Amino acid sequence: MSAALKLYSFAPFDRAARVRWTALELGLSLEEVALSYGGGDHKEPAYRAMNPFCHVPVVQMPEHCMYESVAICQYLAEKHPQSGLVPALDSPLRASWLSWLFFCASDLDAQGFHVFNYAMLRPDAAKREAALRLMTPALDVLEAHLAQHEYLVGDSFSLPDILLGHALVLLSLSKALEPYAQLRRYRDVLAQRPAAQASGLFAILQRA
Fold first, then answer.
1. Domain range holding 72?
2. Alpha-carbon distance 132 to 112, whole Å?
3. Is 0.85 surpassed by the pTM of this model?
4. Which residue of 142, 164, 174, 175 has the lowest C-beta tally within 10 Å?
5. Is 168 found in the same domain as 104?
6. Are 32 and 38 within 8 A, CB to CB?
7. Which of 19, 49, 83 is the last residue of a domain?
8. Is 124 helix (H, G, I), strand (E, B) or coil?
């Protein structure tokens, strides 16, 4: 029997990793479709029909296709509320959960990618340092928060932790976490989760 979800991605650590990890936390079956960035698979008409922006990830579901990794993760989590990845609409944690979710999806993701880009993809030491300086206030806030809390929202693992965990892998590869003991501790806690291990996201740190 084929998987209910088909995930299109480039690499184990691209933004599709968020979807893969989320699906595994939810106990969902995934069929993986690896695309060739250099080969231009993401620009072919069949893929463009699923995502007109030609980005990854895309998830094919029985009822429709979705793109944008955070939208996919939130959609899947809300379809499986018993997982604990998303609080109920009337939960007192809902506002905090949404705030952290969108912070991780917007400011943190954009700033972290600039650091990763200039550290790993297009190495430029001066631009990496400039990008990291811009990100330092956000990392300082996260460090202080995680010194007081096990996870981002309350004391339970939830979807924003997956987004932050993904960002911390990229920042670890960029050698940006040395001053942040709490972020490294938190990253290592996340890496021990069975779904995180099965996602393959953290395995790249062992090879770096």
1. 5-83
2. 8
3. yes
4. 175
5. yes
6. no
7. 83
8. coil
